[in-house]
Fold this protein.
Amino acid sequence: MPKAPPLRLGVNVDHVATLRNARAGDRPDPVRAALLAIEAGADGITAHLREDRRHISDEDMARLKARISKPLNFEMAATADMLAIALRTKPHAVCLVPERREELTTEGGLDVAGQHNTLAPFIARLNDNGVRVSLFIAADPAQIEMAAKLRAPVIEIHTGAWCDAVVDGDRAKAGVEWQRIVAGATLARAAGLEVHAGHGLDYVTAEAIAALPEIVELNIGYYMIGEALFVGLAQTVRTMRAAMDRGRAKLENDA
Ligand code: PXP
């Protein structure tokens, strides 16, 4: 079996901004968190500019792009306003996500199969401007096939349902969701897509999913920022990195 490609860790700093915004001041600064995460071993930084600006601000995005030395992954809804900001910011990548104002977090994947006509010109504009497009979708064959047709180079598989089932101890549901992720990652890779994964990952689920060779990037935020309160962000990044490396090593040992 060929050696598995390296697995990158993208650290999502949204919830540093959530904490900052609780007092409407400048601290804690998500850019400082991004710099520290990179120093501790993160391969990239992810931030979601939501339409309601509940955490990351326009200025945060511009400062992240200007200050960090690793790729910036700009998560956003597929709207005209966001497209204009992304084209100005020129991040390494844009991850298109569905967004509902009343949701607590990004609850489901983007319905690319149902929004083909809206998304096609959107993705083309980003591709033409040298921004790598990633589509945040459920591991569903119809969505994956449409992502490939839309010429998005990357998909990010929504791992939320699987992670919730693992945390809840619902083994049957976790098993079903896991099989969906495995099949989706295989299908996507066969269709020529680069495969990322994210949402709800912790040390345990990140270690497990690291054993899928098709997946080359994990984007993780909420759990890591929570852990950082207790052990510090640098230690959290190192522990996450070690969990991912253990998962990847298992794959190579099993080969
Ligand atoms: N990937 C995408 C596309 C997301 O929307 C989010 C949440 O902002 C994440 C990854 C990170 O999820 P979590 O914060 O649950 O680790």
User: Anything to note?
Assistant: The radius of gyration is 17 Å. The pocket of pyridoxine-5'-phosphate is lined by residues 12, 14, 48, 75, 95, 97, 105-106, 136, 156, 198-201, 219-223 (CB under 6 Å). Residues 77 and 99 are 6 Å apart (CA to CA).
